[in-house]
Design a protein that fits this description.
The protein is α/β, with parallel strands linked by helices. It folds into 2 domains: 201 residues, inorganic pyrophosphatase (n-terminal core) (Alpha-Beta Complex); 124 residues, Diaminopimelate Epimerase, Chain A, domain 1. 36% of the residues lie in helices and 17% in strands. The strands form 2 sheets. A 6-stranded mixed β-sheet has the order 6-7-8-9-11-10. A 5-stranded parallel β-sheet has the order 2-1-3-4-5. Helix 2 links the parallel strand 1 and strand 2. Helix 4 runs antiparallel to helix 5 and helix 5 packs antiparallel against helix 6. The protein is globular. The protein starts with 14 loop residues before the first helix and ends in a 7-residue tail after the last helix.
Length: 345
Amino acid sequence: MTDTVARPVPGAIADEDWAAAVATVREYAPGGRVLLICHVNPDGDALGSMLGFALGLRRLGVHDLQATFPGEFEVPAPFTAMPGLDLLVAADAVTTDPDLVLVFDVAAESRMGALAGVLDRARASVVLDHHASNTGFGGVRLVDPAAAATSVVVEELLDRLDVPLDAEIAECLYIALATDTGSFRFDMTTPRVHEMAARLIATGLRPAEISRRIFDSRPFGAMKLFADVLARAELEPGAAGGLGMVWTYATLDDLARHGQRPYVLDALIDPVRCVAEVDVSVVVKQVADGEWAVSLRSKGAVDVSAVAVTLGGGGHRLAAGFTGHGTPSEVIKTLREQLTPEKRI
């Protein structure tokens, strides 16, 4: 890091928790077996935070490193050029009794799938997260709901471990920061976020090239898929106490018809949330027969995290999700019933 750029600003994490995390990493990582885990269907913040920290541990001389995530072992195409991918190992091939487990961007153990059991077998664990709905699992917990991304927490821990930023670490953390702030458009884009971005760019990153790769590159089939799914969107001006809701759904048949992988649907919430007449936007994505991953967004008037938690999910005030069951209409009916006036911000 350069001396001309502002240092990280302390957040909501207590000094004793930072000290415990530093002590834990320094005790168990050197010479130990270290396993890093992020959530199922990893996004840019999950992968970027995990791999950025893994590369930082490598700079500290830690060699027995594995990084993984539960579910299907597939890295979404926008992230296949991210540094540190050589550290990724399929979940069924990782060590089952590590000395140290580090968990990234995971609000609840359920988001770790079968990997959750590793926490009990590890000698120590550290959880790094920024979800307000975090359930408080793990040994040492570094959870800052005021942070725009988990990568904010990761950068500060690396700093406290005296790991200098290099271009590879910085690229991972920049991707994480950019994706969770919507390319620096969302409400969590604070001066702290721009100061961190400046530190990362100062290592020699090319933000335009990263943005093209992450945000502006989609297969033609994905564009055709989006057209089909957006065409079936429903506008409900009276939902959410009159604040309005727009929703649509995508099926496994939609993916198969256009030859696309499920991760392409992660970007579908962006055009849906642009609808001017509503506060709440919803995309319902099929993951199995009768099972749907539901993405929620709010423009600021509704706390969608409160809604998601009620339905067994979690997230942030303006971006959250949960798992629904039944048909898309049944999932939306359940959601509609939870969008009550008390969920207003």
